[in-house]
Structures are given as structure tokens and as C-alpha cells.
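Quick one:
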Amino acid sequence: MPKARVGVLISGRGSNMAALLYASRADDCPYEIVLVAANDPQAPGLALAAAEGVPTFARAHQGLKRAEFDAIIDVELRRAGCDFVALAGYMRLLSADFVANWQDRMVNIHPSLLPAHKGLHVHEAVLAAGETVSGCSVHLVTPELDDGPVLGQTRVAVVPGDTPETLAARILIAEHQLYPRVLAGLVSRATAPETLLDRVRQLALALPEAEEKLSHGSPGFFVRGGKFFAYFQRDHHGDGITAVLVKASGVEEQAQLIENDPDLYYRPAYFGPSGWIGIRLDTGETDWQHVDDWLTRSWRASAPKRLAMLPF
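Output:
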């Protein structure tokens, strides 16, 4: 399984970026850092990333509207082939379009136990409130500041005599341990067979009168009272592949698809001679709109005319 490609956005020294980067060097880490980008060309973290051989990009945001600057960053992330984005001390509010483009694939770390103490001056607020426990949180990014679903937290005790600086320093240690672990869990779940099956199931069962049942040990999707139009396969007879099988127009189209993109398409055992095509879901770069289009096309080829002609 290829490692997930992660872009990290920073504004300063990038200590959490460094924690993610060094964690990624472990053989069993499911992600790699492929780009570090900053809204400040003088951000110290850029020099560290470059020294470690990670491509960097920097552009000052001054003079640009928020959406304009975010579009520039988005282009660089996509040029680097990023699958996920990690914010690591990125001191910018993000535009709604940018957040939408990376929905469920962008995370941030915040130095409090969310939902408590969102925004800035967290440690001062914790001490002013007389709290005995603080910590850090990793969450998915949504348009609202520090408001996305929390993926992981670490609690850190407030010590008598703490200042905002001493508390921040101790929480930073926890951040460096929490962030790589949570990011690894997120990218692993995104490519886990169970997650991929759930996504295929959601798309397939959204089609009119589509139902699911096991067929030869694999989840299959069929038109009620009719034919199968898709199968989900995982390591079928030990081939190591996770894929969805759909109907092509025949073996000629099947062969052409495989010739044009052998990394995406393959001829599945048993189903191949009948013109079915396998679409790999385990490459880490699944185009779900493409999968949805194929499921719809295969459904139309299998549905009775009264359904196949429905406009949707």
C-alpha cells in the first residue's frame, strides 16, 4: 500500500511539522510529508524542511484576498499530489472553498481540550479560570474556528505556579506525541478496506432499487429482483487487491481500459471473461466521482428498462 501523501502548512518554526516529519520516517508509518508550505517566506520551519529533503513553498499572503491566497496554496498542494493536509501552527483563517476542497482530509492541532478555549490566548484563559487540567486536541478542520470533530486528545496537568509559558511548553511535548499518532490513524482508516466498502456501499445503495447481499463471500450489489451490477473484493484469492468490480461494455473495452491505465484497472479473475472490469481502490488516490460514474453506468446496464431510463 503506498503511503498517504501529506502537505503541512506552517507560519513559524514548525515544531509540530518536525514531529510529523520525523514520525513519518518510521517504516510502518502510513504517511509521508511531501510538501511544507508557509504564508511567511521567512518561517524558520521552511529551512528545516528543506534540510530534511522535503519540498517547500512560500508566499506572503499580504495584498491578497483570503480566497485568492488559499487558491494558490491549493494549487501547490495538488501539484505535490497531497492526499491530506495538516495545519501546524498555520496562523490563517481559511476560506470556505479551501475547507470544502479538503473536507475530512485536513486536520489541525490546538493547545486545549476542545471544545474548551478555542482561538488564541488559550493558556492564559486556562490559568485565569483556575483549571487543574489542560491539554491538546487534534480535530478535522471545518469552516468554524477550532470546531471540527475531535479525533484525539491528550490531557496535561496544570502545575501550581505555572505560567502561560511553562504550561505551553509542557503541552507542546504532548502535541508532538499526539499529532503523528492521530494523523497516522486518520490516513489508515481512510484506506482501510472497511472504510472503502462503506464508501462503495453508500454510492451503490443510493441508486434506485439497489440492494446488497453476499455473493461467493464478497459484498455484491444488485437491482431488486434483477442482476448484480457491482461487487466489492478484498484480497480475492490472495491477490492483495481491494477493488470494486463493474460491468464494461465487453472484453474489448476492458482491454482498452487496462492498456490506458494499468495502475487503476485490471481484469478480475472469474468475472473478467464476461467483460467485468476491476477498479482498484487501494492506490491511495481514489477518484470517488469516477467510481460513482462507473457504478451508475453498470447499474443502468443491469436495471430493467423502467428504471434504466430514469433521469438522475
